């Protein structure tokens, strides 16, 4: 079981990994099994994997909160803008809503994060993945088996990141949900945290990271824009130099007119500076103001997307937190 959970984590089948972990821990808590000494190592391994699962889910959530993840809105928009998928990630995103029965025939053989893509854009997965590693169908009660016979009945509209999960109420709700793929992935990650009883811990970490991460995002945007502007200026200078060299043979005959033109331009610029201390570049319609406006627009657009993700996840965490409190207060809980 620990090896299977690690394999599911490597394949980013996080919900299936959490399902398997929770089911296995419940099995170990059954009456009569708690005193079995031979199971202590398994129990210890599963306890360590709970922490590893939490940090893996938390990092995935962090990436998608800031639109850097595989299923984030920015990544999906980039995929939509391309006509032909060119990578494994693109193939998975475009075909994430394809029926599982069509994929399972092509995902055996190689790791689907590094293997070649098949004809329908789905890259192959490893033979120790969720296809053949999980063993015979009679072990499917532990979860993690993509090749189960009942897969067709629930996976017609299930995203690929849930393709190895055992059918349950959450998968049924995801199948029926009319939500974008990035929102479904955020819901899945929050559901995983809820199943691990890590909602409060995740919320605290997310809050701690907001301010420094947004600061880094803004700084990165400014540096990126500065590099692009510098490169653009260098290209303009190079083109201007090439143009000047190509017309240098006629410079002598046309010397008087450009000279007079330069004098007129210098006179106009001097007049503007005397009339106003603001240079034409810094004027409201100048190049500098235009560049600053573009930069701020880019930053604000990025931040709006990030804050929308935080609102979505915040509402989900709050809902799960209140649900957990209600379940603890009930006699059964």
Automatic annotation (TrEMBL):
UniProt keyword list: Exocytosis, Protein transport, Transport
Protein known as: Exocyst complex component Sec8
Function: Component of the exocyst complex involved in the docking of exocytic vesicles with fusion sites on the plasma membrane.
Cellular component annotations (GO), alphabetically ordered: exocyst
Family named by the database record: Belongs to the SEC8 family.
PANTHER family documented for this protein: EXOCYST COMPLEX COMPONENT 4
Stretches that traverse the bilayer: none
GO biological process: Golgi to plasma membrane transport; protein targeting to membrane; protein transport; vesicle tethering involved in exocytosis
